[in-house]
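Hey, I'm writing a tutorial for new members on how sequence and structure tokens pair up, and I'd like a real worked example in the thread rather than a made-up one. If someone can provide the structure for the chain below, I'll link this post from the tutorial.
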Amino acid sequence: MTFTPRKLNLFTLFKLPAAYFTGVRTKSIDAQTCVVVVKHRWINQNPFNSMFWAVQGMAAEFATGALLMMKIKDSQKNISMLVINNKASFTKKAKGLISFSCDQGHLVDQAIQKALETGEGQRFILTASGVDQIGDIVSSFDFEWSIKLKH
């Protein structure tokens, strides 16, 4: 699969339907950055009239995970990936359109290279921050990913 926003959005429809139906959409992806957006709507709200934390988490995880999936595919190696830990902080109610971006493609490159060189699993943290339409950070997520060469 070529990694384009359209193909990633179709991927969510079939493989991550909870993310798709709550409005999580990939806006852009390149070698360094993935941007995923989600709009506060009735389907993804909490009782406090803002976006449910888990929807923010899905968008943030996908921003990091899509970048990792693309780089694993580009390596042409059989590499497994798994979230083994995460941490989140929330600083403002998430209303309107929220953009989650991960711009740590270089960290993914380093981890894959080290896994290929050593044959050992690698653990690393990727961060995605959610920003509202006026530029305020509403939440930040750290995902500890583990990758390992499959034999």
